[in-house]
Amino acid sequence: MLIQEYTKKWEQDFEKIKEKLKTVLPPNIKIEHVGSTSVPNLAAKNIIDIDIIYFDTSSFEEIKIALNKLNYFHNGNQGIKGREVFKRRKQSNETKILDTITHHLYVCASENEELKRHLLFRDYLRKNITTRLDYQNIKYNIAQKANQDKKIYAEIKEKEATHFINSIIEIAKKQL
Questions:
Q1: Mean pLDDT of the chain
Q2: Which of 10, 58, 68, 123 has the smallest number of CB atoms closer than 10 Å to its CB?
Q3: Cα–Cα distances in Å, from 27 out to 21, 40, 59, 98?
């Protein structure tokens, strides 16, 4: 199944990846677990989404060099300004954790709007059971429409879940 029931393993997997990343990253950054796997009791695709946050614009190059040591390469922003995507280049015994846990890695400036949206949406879902269940139902319905195909799921989710997500982010902004 594309969408899986929540498991505490996702938080444990995030912590393992985070610890490995911290071995090379500069100390002046923050590492956040975002996306559906970061919301307790929310069904999700089994992919850990991670945002590395930097507070000084000069830190990006340092982060890029550090991630290269763990065989990540910079893959551009993939159409979302200020959210830089990093992918794994190759596997090695030294980075087994990074090779065995499916994850997406992004690097964002602390003032990036997409980062703020990730955090607002995540935090709102963590606090609001009804909204979390509504979002979960949307995800299950989309997975069914997509016949459990990841690519089709992403396309349908972009069309059908965007309004819901944006409305929740607007509510969350008003509560700040």
A1: 94
A2: 58
A3: 11, 28, 10, 20
